[in-house]
Design goal:
By secondary structure, the protein is of the alpha+beta class. The protein has 9 helices and 15 strands. The protein is about 40% helix and about 20% strand. The longest helix is centred in the first third of the chain and has 30 residues.
Length: about 290
């Protein structure tokens, strides 16, 4: 009986020490909790806003705006792994998988991690599915050497898409009527300051337009890739290359876009102002545009 009591007392002491250690560990974890990052998605409204507005809202506001935004509970890195795994296991190897592979890369999933993920999925989900996924993953993680820039700084659309720091997004269908050529839009922020990542195929440019404001307002462009142009009404076109910053005053008529033989990408930042609105005007004269190098 004495031995049994000693054992019980000893076990109780061990359990108490374990509980204290767990409490300390939990407290340390509480001090290092992740802060949620709001995920902004507009692809649903851009591509299905008129045809299926409810689905577009579920996609943008619920799936991304709420579920993906709970990244303080499950990180964006881990959510990307879960999403890619679900798509590959379901046999979905179209543009949606490529989009989520790119998101995974942007969210910190390394090439080595992705190779291991797809390899394991091959055993559990099917070998042909893994092969198809690897073909897309190689494009996203850029296993093939990037197309070298020419001395003039020209880049292909494919190279910009493969190496873009920010997600490129879908085809810019909502504003297609105001562009000559194909552009791609991904809204990076809709809170505090509105920021969009705009990508232009070679030769694509938007129409003349004006950012109206009674006070403040205007726009800033941060050039991230390729080569393009910016022009204000009555002034000569200004060539743009990565690293260039353009400050567009409010109420000034202007256009911007890619060079004739190079793709182009910039971040467009709306400058807050009072009574702001956009006015779209005529297309850029093709004859004048084609004189650009």
């Amino acid at each position: 009986m004495k031995i049994t009591k000693k054992i019980i007392v000893g076990l109780a002491a061990v359990m108490l020490m374990s509980t204290n250690l767990l409490n300390v560990e939990a407290a340390e974890m509480a001090d290092n909790t992740r802060k949620a990052v709001k995920v902004v998605q507009t692809a649903g409204r851009q591509q299905l806003g008129e045809f299926a507005p409810d689905f577009a809202r579920y996609n943008d506001d619920i799936l991304f705006g709420e579920v993906w935004s709970k990244n303080d509970v499950l990180s964006l890195h881990d959510r990307s792994i879960v999403t890619v795994s679900a798509l590959v296991a379901s046999g979905i190897t179209d543009s949606s998988l490529k989009y989520h592979l790119q998101s995974a890369k942007n969210n910190g999933v390394t090439k080595e991690e992705m190779a291991e993920i797809i390899t394991q999925l091959g055993f559990y989900g099917g070998w042909p599915k893994a092969w198809a996924a690897f073909n897309l993953a190689k494009e996203v993680y850029n296993d093939t050497p990037a197309v070298a820039k020419t001395a003039s700084g020209n880049e292909t659309l494919e190279n910009i898409m493969a190496t873009s720091l920010f997600p490129v997004g879908g085809e810019n269908v909502n504003y297609a009527q105001y562009f000559d050529g194909t552009s791609y839009l991904n809204m990076l922020s809709m809170d505090q300051v509105i920021i969009g990542n705009v990508t232009f195929e070679p030769g694509c440019r938007n129409h003349w337009h004006i950012h109206h404001a009674d006070k403040g307002g205007g726009q800033m462009l941060l050039v991230t890739a390729g080569r393009g142009y910016y022009q204000e009404w009555g002034k000569a076109p200004q060539e743009l290359k990565p690293g260039d910053v353009v400050h567009i005053p409010a109420n000034v008529k202007h256009w911007h876009g890619a060079a004739p033989n190079s793709a182009f990408q910039h971040l467009a930042i709306e400058v807050p102002g009072e009574n702001t609105s956009n006015e779209w005007c005529e297309a850029v004269d093709s004859g004048e545009y084609n004189k650009l190098k």
